[in-house]
Design a protein that fits this description.
two-stranded antiparallel ribbon; 2 domains; single chain; 82 residues; little secondary structure
Length: 82
Amino acid sequence: MAIRLGNTCANCENLLDKNVCAIHKVMVSRIYTCDSFKMQEALKDNRNCVTCVRYEESGCANPEKAAPGMLCSHWAPQNAQA
């Protein structure tokens, strides 16, 4: 099964701080979508040692090499949500 970005509020440029929709002026969740959906122009792709949950932890696969800006195949996001 492929993983895809969905047309949800989490990917919409109308989503403001504290999960408020700029168009409808209501609080939304990341699973909502609407006809006013407009994809964010750029998604954050900040994958490196500093954003890895294993950075400076015992589970790091490359503790001698791990440094800000580097990335390895064992990277795991700090804030993963399903």
